[in-house]
Amino acid sequence: MATEVTMPQMGADMTEGTLVKWVKQVGDQVNRGEVLAEIETDKATVELEAFESGVLKKLVVEEGETVPVGQVIAILGAADEQVEGETPRQPAAETPARRGHGEASARQNAGTTTAQREEAPPPAPETEQMHVNITPGPGGAGADGASGGGRLRVSPVARRIAEDAGLDLARVTGTGPDGRILRRDVEAAISGRQAEPAAPTATAPARPAPAASAKGEAAAQPLTRMRQAIARRMSQSKQTAPHYYLTLDIDMTEAMAFRSQLNASASEEQKVSVNDLVVKACALALERHPKFNAEFSESGLRMHADINIDIGIAMDEGLIAPAILGCAGKTLGQIARESKDLVARAKSGALRAEEYSDGTFTITNLGAYGVETLIGIINPPQAAILGVGSVMPQPAVRDGQVVVRQLMKVALSADHRVSDGAEGARFIKEIQSLLENPVSLAL
Amino acid sequence: MAELRMRDALREALREEMIRDPRIFLMGEDIGAYGGSYAVTKGLLDEFGEDRVKDTPIAESGIVGVGIGAAMAGLRPMVELMTINFSFLALDQIVNSAAKLHYMSNGQISVPLVIRMASGGGSQLAATHSHSLEGLYAHFPGLNVVCPSNSADAKGLLKRAFRDENTTIFIEHTAIYGVKGEVPDDPDFLVEFGKANILRAGTDVTIVGYSGSVHPALRAAALLEEDGIDAEVIDLRTLRPLDIDTVVASVKKTNRAVIVEDDWKFGGFGGELSAQIMERAFDWLDAPVARVSGKDVPMPYNRNLEFAALPSEEDVAEAVHAMM
Amino acid sequence: MTHQQISLPAFNPPEPGNEQLGMFLYQMQLLRRFEEKTGEMYTKGKIRGFLHLYTGQEACAVGALNALREQDRIVTHYRDHGHALARGVDANRIMAELFGRVDGVSGGRGGSMHLYDVSKGFLGGYAIVAAHLPLAVGLGLAAKMQNEDRVALCIFGDGSVGEGEFHEALNLSVLWKTPVIFFCENNLYGMGVRFAESLSTQIPTLAAAYNMPAVSINGMDVLEVYRETQKAVQYCSTGNGPYFIEAMTYRYRGHSMADPELYRLKDEIEQYRKRDAIEALKQHMMERGMLDEGGWQDVVSRVDHAVDEAVAFADASPEPGLDTLYDRLMAEPANG
Which of B16, B17, B29, B60 is catalytic? Predict the structure, then answer.
């Protein structure tokens, strides 16, 4: 019976060997214990002895060849035996279930050789990070540091309690070391909020008030917590994120007609606003342009898996921008319903923590105020914001004729650390194209 | 109840256990005629004779190895290594044989051996004679590592060690051998392994110590009380098995933890404990876990330098204030 | 699945009889063939880690282990397959251990260097050179303190002599008069370093300096090893303290499978092969009419069968479950 001679394992760390010399040749009688060949490992040259007696029928590996441990290198058989021509093949030795340091894992080994693995290009870092689902906790990535640069300092227990209570940590003043928000601060804020929910108290640090100037003001107006938060966040954005800006006109004539059709038969709560159309268009565009649904960090870009679009809502105390969560899977009707709900809850103070903190892109729309152009400041740590102006009848050139169309000016402000102008242009053109062909928004 | 110094409580444990179990015998350098370097075994040679109280040559690896062999063969030996500093010479026996034989033999062999060693700095013995290696021994799976802080625990834990089927590294801090404490008279008094002791209940911060470091921790708690801070002090008693549950429950209550240890901070046991607290109680922390440890230098001889190299109650109180 | 058991004599008469010599021959051939097979299994990746073959030294194991009594205990070095086999540890379960399987003597947790079978008094192979010498003193001390007539056989190589534990153990053993046979297999190489270049004196001289009987014997002659070890057992079991044997032997194979053997000449190995212990016993028996070629062939085929069966047994044994990873880390109290 033919016996396969394989490249031997000659040490715990040996993975391959080089056939230096065949001591026996085809046709030679070989006895058990006789030297068949010399094998070179990465440590030394060793002799390979035959474990069975027989006639050497075939040499599968030539002198000088390096093959993995376990590969057949020769065939022994009886003198009168015919041995099929064998081709070199992959290791016959069992792959151990577990491997130690420095050895490729069995999974990595499956179906690929070392060489193939090495030749394969490394995965693009962006593709790899697409799998990372970064959903920052409330007050974390969504709020920024009181002490300048980076995260708001919040102790883990304070963060957890605030999250459970739906408390916006941006509204809490930390009293711990370096201004860290501690458990006691969160608990005080919760009890305070319950006591007088609608009126944020003035908590400006006791700084000496500036002396009265020639400008005529008598005393400094105390800052509300919301004012403090807006001041801090907008300053941080402008200081850390280098903005670039792109503007263009979107012809909303078709979209306005489309909206009228939709709203003609809709109940009040189902009615679609212009802003809802913009949200839907942005959600679709963001799916195709993930860099605008991302976050810059020193260790790399974080591409968010979810599309959560913040919508700016003007209130008496200031501005708030809660998010419509999971826009990617939502229909225009759902977006319309949710945005109405969001505005209502923002005004009654019933927003959830993740709506404050988990936004990944922002739309700010002052169309209702008759503003032509609005260029926004990026809402950190997001990568872009879309400013939307009023839809206005304007002269436009179509087929060489001056005609009146319903135009809307939009402005994209984007973080240059994350994207470049040409990418921004493709993104904003996509939004334009979606809104000018509004049927695509209904799909 | 009797008030005993820790060394006397340890001797009482040895004596009671030797009376209870004839398989127990003692080996060590100068434990017989001399009475033990720290007088723990004083008088035992007279009471139990040369067969059960063996003075040995100065051969730490040899006597620990003999202890392992005798334990494998069914006896209950105790080896006293005069100080923990000499245990380096027996490290291979402890790590490669005592800690591993049960596992490697698939349960066929057990090594019920007690290795006692005197530990710690503070006596101006300088760098080679002032080690705190509890964390080193706690690193090895397969060992019990026991570090009493007071007389009652010393007695109850040592008696418990003789009733275990595994090797116990029993570490005695030299600075507290002479500290007196109430000790139960009951000959069956045992302190279970893996049960930390809350020495002082508090609400504002958890201070964790073991062996000698429990004492600056308690003194720090008294200082903090004057500042209106209510500290809880936990004595781990044993590092392996480790009662992390008690520590975590306390930290969930106080939201802060300070670990006090004589050992070097770099790679020391406090790092392990800190990591486990963060793994188990991250969302309950109001501040990063702090460590007050021995300074990262060989122990200096000079009194002032040595004092500066060891954790003090002021260091502990300062660490607490920094996280409030 | 049948187990190949090697039966041991209940009692060793001073001169081995016909049947006993036949058993020695069978065991030595078993040790030889078993190691050849483990070498083969290593090259095929069935056995991994370190593998140290005992080939050439068979007379030491077979002579010494057969001189022991059932109650005696053994600790040895990491070239331990031969000692386990000669003590009657099941060849199937040894092979299964080398394969890392659940039916291995150590449940697949020890491997080649860490074989244990407490039921046979075989308390292990030790992979740290000389670490087990103090353990043997402890075993002897325990027997003495418990008034049990048990001898501890401690087998180690010439490489151990330079370690401090060698000296600590010999000294303690004499001081405390423990029944320990220190059995040094001097195969002339501590890994690749010649013995002559690593010790400034002779081994028995060192042992004698600690005041114990110390002999140097021909470790390639199973009858001499058997006779001298019997004397040692007799000496130790009658309260005299330890006894030291240096058995001069030779390993045919490298230190381990990874050893390219750059440090010695082929010719040296050939010279020793001419003094092969199995050949010598075969000749001895044939000259006295105790064995003929047919009888020898019968031994060879019985051994081949046993070794093939050990491989089949090992191959069929399952891998230990991953859920057993933490099992037996700490020993549980026996009964309260």
Answer: B60
